[in-house]
Design a protein that fits this description.
The chain is an alpha/beta fold. The chain contains nine helices and seven strands, in the order H-E-H-E-H-H-H-E-H-E-H-E-E-H-E-H. The protein has a five-stranded parallel β-sheet, sandwiched between helices. Strands 5-6 form a two-stranded antiparallel sheet. A hairpin with a 6-residue loop joins strand 5 and strand 6. Helix 2 packs across helix 9 and helix 3 crosses helix 4. The longest helix has 24 residues. The chain binds adenosine monophosphate. The site of adenosine monophosphate has 17 residues, from helix 3 and helix 4.
Length: 241
Amino acid sequence: MSEAAEHHREREGVGPIVLLGAPGAGKGTQAKLLERRYGVPQISTGDMLRHHVAQKTDLGLQAVEYMQRGSLVPDDVVMRMIQGRFRAPDAARGFVLDGFPRTVPQAEILTEKLKHLGWPPPLVVYLAMDYNILLQRLTGRRSCPKCGRIYNIYLQPPAHDGLCDVDGTPLITRKDDREDVIKERLRAFVEETRPVAKYYRQVGLFHKLDGSRPPDAITAELFVLADSRLHGGEEETGTVA
Ligand code: AMP
């Protein structure tokens, strides 16, 4: 047995989960719920990049222009940023990848990294959405800068206009949720990220859920899929060869 395979046998927990889907498909919302239920971190490359931009790090300076126009940040910048994150102590029982991988080369590197760390193939869930619903979700999206809770002024409004239900903080609109930028983000998704879904479908690791249903229904299905990982139920469904 390889060193990686031996390591894998010692691992407990839900393991790696990849949430795929267009911007606005609900990946962030679902990732937070998975994080809470399984005690594993949400790893959002979008959040990490925004942090680098806010802190004006070298990496942030390299990423900012791409992000402002809604294009993908180059793979090498993203890979440098995420380097080492999967080995952090909080990721020992698994992690939820939200917004990564976004391109086929990122997916291929992830496959190698997971293998190297002794993880089984990830649970990959694609939240599929209708284009018009996505537009409504993205243009209506507001979030709390303090606790990160996400609202939608059309679909899930806060109890008091513009204020977070949890801590009363004024809600903000992300800069890249403007319509022209949204269109570019959706183009990047169609051209560069949809092939990632195909990549995982080909290696047999793929579950597609209808992301336009109420979030609770999606969460329930996700929990069933992820629970089966705790008991080894996914083992035979796919290998990344
Ligand atoms: P998100 O919050 O996931 O929608 O990401 C916001 C922006 O960050 C995207 O529009 C991209 O510019 C950039 N970004 C996030 N994750 C990645 C990634 N894995 N690869 C390339 N660019 C990314």
